[in-house]
Amino acid sequence: MTGYVVRRLCQSLVVLVGVTLVVFVLEHLIPGSLARAILGPRASPASIKAFETANGLDHPVVVQYAVFLGHLLEGNLGRSYRLNQSVDSLVAHQLPNDVLLVGTALVLALAIALPLGVAQALRRGKAFDHGATGVVFALYSTPSYCLGLLLVAGLAVAVRAFPPEAPQSAGLSGVLHDPRALVLPVLTLTLVNVALFSRYMRSAAVATLAEDFVTVARAKGSGGLGLVWRHVLRNSLAAVATLVGLSLPAVLTSGLVVEYLFNYPGVGLTYFTAASSSDYPVMLGITVLVGAATVLGSLLADVSYAVLDPRVRYG
Amino acid sequence: MASVTRRLAGLLGACALGLGACSQGTGQPSGTGGAPVRGGVAYFAEQPLQPPTYIFPLVSGAYYTEENTSWFQTLMYEPLYWFGDGGRPTLDARLSVGDPPVYSGHDRVVTITLKAWRWSDGEHVTARDVLFWIDLLKANTQDWASYVPGGFPDNVVRATVLSAQTIRLELDKAYNPTWFTYNELSQITPLPLAWDRTGPAVAAGRRLADTTPAGARAVYGFLNAEARSPASYAASPVWSVVDGPWRLTSLTSDGRATFVPNTRYSGPDKPKLSEFVELPFTSADAELSVLRAGTGTGGPRTSGTQVSVGYLPDNDLPQSRTLQSAGYRIVDWFPYQFDYFEPNFANPTAGPVFRQLYFRQAFQHLVDQKGWIHAYYGGLGLPTHSPVPAEPPNPYSDPLARSNPYPFSLKAARSLLEAHGWKVVPNGLSFCARPGQGDGECGTGIPAGRRLSFSLLYPSGLSYSDDSMVDLQSVARQVGIELQLKEVPATTISATVLPCSPHQAACSWQLGQYGTGWLFSPDHYPTGEEIFQTGALGNVGSYSDPSIDRLIEATTTAPPAAEQKALDAYADAVRTAVPDFWQPSPGTAVVLQGNLRGFVPNAYGFINPEEWYFTGS
Q1: Angle formed by the axes of helices A280-308 and A234-246, to 10°?
Q2: Which of B73, B161, B172 is nearest to B111 (CA)?
Q3: How far apart are the C-alpha atoms of B210 and B215, rounded to whole Å?
Q4: Would you kindly state where each structural domain of chain B is located, as residue ranges?
Q5: Measured between alpha carbons, how far is B369 from B581 in angstroms, rounded to an integer?
Q6: Homologous superfamily of domain range B2-238+588-610
Q7: Contact B495 A31 (CB under 8 A)
Q8: Cα distance between residue B35 and residue B33, in whole Å
Q9: pLDDT per residue over B215-261, tens digit each?
Q10: pLDDT by residue (tens digit) across B343-363?
């Protein structure tokens, strides 16, 4: 297993470098002058030259890329052209908020979706299953943007039960200081994820319940929660584990809509803004992080297979 | 230098209460009245994802945004002259640090006397502080967003401090005093000598570093380095020396800026609020949600979420009634600007067509400004008929600025094309049937068979702009003009819609729209040397007309007695020459907490929260 993990980490490194190379090249293929895009159309030639010199844009692209990789090895993700901050400090400030928001939503979604999926499988074809399926499909087919707006209109504007925006205090402690303000953004993300996870869980549990070992267990007198816990749940988790593993990069990106709607600055929205404003250092820095999260997430998913299923072994 | 700004880049405009200066929303007046309550916190909504990021007033193009300049720096560091007087686009002598400048020597010498104001560290604001700014600018022009080669400070031959409060500037030639005051002196912000250093430590008896170019560059280097750490602004011994009405107490990395009154502020309007807070937003929708969930008559904030001065997103103008019923007041804001989109006169294919006046006239006839304002701008727009706009009311525009020389008319457009050798093919592609330079022929550089098909770049994310361009495409098709619309990010426009030579690959763009107007700030006098003069940095379409150049030159050099005549001649020539295609200038619906008073929108986009206060009821 250790050898496998080491090999995967090495492969991941190559993938990461490849991702940065592709993004770097694509950025430089965008037509027009980057300095003009940043400084505005009426920047003087001297200003353009000064900007390009200050940001190393007067060097060949290969040299620029080498400098970028060099900085990366030093843990320096670059400096935003527009926000007057280093990408490191941007991410360091926003990532904990993202982890809190998406992590909370993920845990809540799993806590609801797993038992719900199993319960639906156990009552397959009955009224409860049909009712839950209807609700889940409604949530699954509702764009998170629309869901968020509906929650704001209902719970923040009409009823005034919760604030319409996420906590605005600085830092993680500030966010935690105002838990009521977390309710609507977390609820939006949770409901969307519940719909996704519960469908997978239901399908996996239905398949597991049809397995011979479950029939044998039943024949031996096992039933009720014991059967579910010992035989059904664990054997049904592999598919959901994959989903959760692949959700790791989503910590950085999937909150974009929620960040947009609930005034919650996060990495996803920062990336989107950087992409639309030619702020390349921010784009590149976050690309590296998302790439790292993606390969780490898929690695964790693979490792979790071995933990959940004794038949899976990596040499 | 005038600046191109986003539509929502400023909240404030020309709706001075009592001046009848603006199209008021259906709410109550925004000015004074009611029993003032001392203290309270006013919350001001920043534009989405546009936090203040740079504090040093000598700001480069990368950080030259209204959020940094008009809504942040000027709260702490007063410009020499304050522009926007009670909503009118004029100089406000009362709020200015300097007394009105005195011109002499046939308008080649200007003498400025400063009022007896103080910095927060107790030092006087002096003529030397003005010289400090000029020294820094001269040595670091490449870092000054408003720098125009040959303009300020290049046109100042010598600056001499005559006394503690008086400085004399000798100019390279005679200038129109109004132009020089509004467009050049408007760029001056006195800086405290406490900043005149090259490192954190200040040696006793030190020699001021700005007196040599190398020293001035070193000072800029130090101050710029200090400004690269927004998190440290509030605690910085450098940035805490202010002469404006406000002092920064915190700035979060998200952009939440908190100000308290500068107790040593020398200006006429001392802050009445106990705190002024600028709130960052990730989207206009998020800002609207906060407005809707808040209380429009909540008074000074005690708990919960509240925006005291916000805005209605473009797509949500119908929400104004809901907000008004919740106690908010709505004020329509129109900045002093005109709006346009650019033809590329240097494009090898389209350029020869655009250079024909009859074609520009015909194309302008296709722009249905009134219809667009009604259908796509939610009624919140002003038609553009002149480069010297008539609105907000001002002393510069002549009566012609209110009339459209080329009103919407398919028939007129078609007639003009047919009269000049074009075979008009409605819903097809019109083509040049009579090439040549004579009467009734297509014109120089247009071969037989040339078809009227152009690409048009415009920025994404502005629904009114999107709708207008689609409408224009549809209308143009009816006279056989094909417009290939390309909706791209605004930065792509900035990077590609640029001056060019016909042989360059970068000259492939044909029509471009920035999605923004030409706001007269920080060049406040509505002349055209930066947008219509041959070779000007803002003349991205490479328009060139020697007669217009001469008229522009006259507006910048005319003596006072002739300045209005020169400005009228320029405006009337440009409005009919159509160097750009005029389109409506959008406004913004400002949302005010019901009991907030003293808010007077500024025609150039500045804010004066020191004049705001809450009433008891």
Answers
A1: 170
A2: B161
A3: 5
A4: 2-238+588-610, 343-586
A5: 11
A6: Dipeptide-binding Protein; Domain 1 (3.90.76.10)
A7: yes
A8: 7
A9: 999 999 999 999 999 999 999 999 999 999 999 999 998 899 999 99
A10: 999 999 999 999 999 999 999
Complete DSSP assignment for B160-179: EEEETTEEEEEESS---HHH
CB contact under 8 A, B141 and A44: yes
**Does A28 lie at the interface with B, CB-CB under 8 angstroms?**
no
Give the integer Cα–Cα distance in Å for A180 and A50.
48
At A52, list the tokens.
Answer: 């390009």
What's the gap in Å between the CA of B461 and the closest CA on chain A?
11
* C-alpha–C-alpha distance, residues A311 and A250, integer Å: 29
Which residues 65-104 in chain A show a CB within 8 A of chain B? Answer: 81-85, 89-90, 93
d(CA B530, CA B553): 11
Q: With beta carbons less than 8 A apart as the criterion, state whether A280 and A81 touch.
A: yes
Whether the CB of A263 is below 8 Å from some CB of chain B: the reply is yes
Residue numbers of A between 46 and 65 with CB closer than 8 Å to B:
46-47, 49-51
Among all residues of chain B, which has the CA nearest to that of A157? Answer: B293
Cβ atoms of B487 and B516 within 8 Å: the answer is no
Inter-chain residue contact B60 with A39, CB threshold 8 Å: yes
* Radius of gyration in angstroms for the set of CA atoms belonging to chain A, rounded to a whole number: 24
> What residue of A is the nearest CA neighbor of B288?
A164
Tens-digit pLDDT profile for residues A175-213: 777 888 899 999 999 998 898 899 999 999 999 988 898
Per CB-CB distance under 8 Å, the chain B contacts of A40 are 3-4, 61, 64, 145, 494
Q: Using CB atoms, pick whichever of B61, B145, B495 lies closest to residue A34.
A: B495
Q: Which CATH superfamily is domain B343-586 in?
A: Dipeptide-binding Protein; Domain 3 (3.10.105.10)
Q: Which residues of A touch B280 (CB under 8 A)?
A: 263, 265
- Shortest CA gap B304–chain A (Å): 7
CA atoms within 13 A on the CB side of A161: 8
The answer to whether the CB of B272 falls within 8 A of the CB of B36 is: yes
Q: Where do we find the tokens 């008539």?
A: B390
Whole-number Å distance between alpha carbons of B193 and B511 = 48
> Is residue B365 pLDDT above 50, yes or no?
yes
Nearest residue to B612 (alpha-carbon basis) of A199, B604, B602: B602
Q: What is the DSSP string of B399-421?
A: GGGGS-SS-S-HHHHHHHHHHTT
On the question of pLDDT at B543 being above 50, the answer is yes
- Is A274 touching B (CB cutoff 8 A)? no
Find residue B131's DSSP bridge partners.
none
Q: What is the architecture, at CATH level 2, of domain A90-280?
A: Orthogonal Bundle (1.10)
